[in-house]
Predict the structure.
Amino acid sequence: MKKRAISRLTALILALTLLCTLCILCPGCEQSGPAPERSAAPEPESSAQPAEPGPAGEPDTLQVLIDVEFSSPFVTPLAEGMGNRLVDNLKLSGGKIGEVEFAYLPKEGADREAALTRMRTEIMSGQGPDLFICGCTNPQAEEEPLFRFPAQAMENQLFLPLDEYFASAQFTEYEKLLPMAMEAGRNQEGQQLVPLAFTLPVTVFRKEEVQHQHSQTMTWAQQLEGDAAMQLSAVPNPSNCLYRSMPFLALADYETESLCFTQEELGSCLETLHRLPYEQEKLEVPEHFTTGLCVNFINLPDANVTYYDSSHHGSLRADDVFTMVPAYSSQGGYGAYTTSFAAINRNTDKPEEAFLLLDYLLSLDGARSELYGRLLDKVGMPVHMDLGGMGGAVAMVAGGAWWMSDENYQEYCSLRDNIAAMRFSTPLERHITQALWDIDSIEWKRSQGEKTDSEEKIIANAYRTMKMELGES
């Protein structure tokens, strides 16, 4: 009797085990009913902080971070809706894209510092936005960019290689993008950083008074030995040009994390940049103006204005035909600076959608959009080589469109196409600018009874700081 009871108990346990197994394996045993409805996505077009990624397992939006305002020397805030209008135009052009959410980092102050720390933490943990549209270091401002050394971030494999995507692009004609700019965003894995805007310091004269053939071999020393116009152009007016590192075609080797110049070479460069402006005052040169190359650096051909003020630039007018003279480097040729770029997060789960938006932004229509115009405002020129002339007007933040006359557009194209090297603007630029400011102010500070470091110590400190920052990048 006892044995039979044990047998019945064993059979009962086996039956219950079989029943539980069937419940687990059978789909019909799952809880039925509609899935929880997802709440409406926020609209942070003017938000100061990046949107948080959506809950895991749910279909979320394409996250786009735009961080360019901090690098602009002018207060021209991004207008609400620019991103959404770009997406709408993308859809009208046949692009199929889902919901897109744009977010922005604060422009300055403690809020920006906190947002940068939070965003960098997210990125290093494998999260962050799907698409980045970022400004580079402004060498005359204190605000830090999200990616201080973009080329180093590329080597650290933070961004998605894009060659395969460009090969099947729906909108972009890759060959229409400035090759020298694109090369700066490539490594052994292919294109990862996509430069959007660039600049370089130029001095502008009337062509009838000054002629110059852009060269990829002329050196800074040869320029300084030239006529008065060339000597003047070798050291552009610092109040109108952000960059003071023109004598160096490259500042850093990111593979070896080393500077491309010695402390002695830095000292010689800064000494010359400090001394020459005083000597330039004695030069007799034709009317001119100095500027960083950017959209609207020449007024519209029909604008009835002179440049700056008559005491400096006389009767130069918008309808003049110009000669644009760059500042050459010690190595030969002249360099340019990338002021903004785009990249796709290597960890995105929406690479196709992220590239589609970038693809449209790089097209002729996208590059003429108001959002792209904001990336260029007072900062740079577009990398699309069909823009800038009468047939390729660029949107301006203040409204309307900007272009150059045929003659000036051809001069600009010659200047652009003969660039010998291009690099991303980094904090290294700021240290060179600051060192020159400190040297320039020594005499004045001492006249006010202030203590100052010697020129040699300023140069040594700048060089040491640059080496240290590069090593920590």
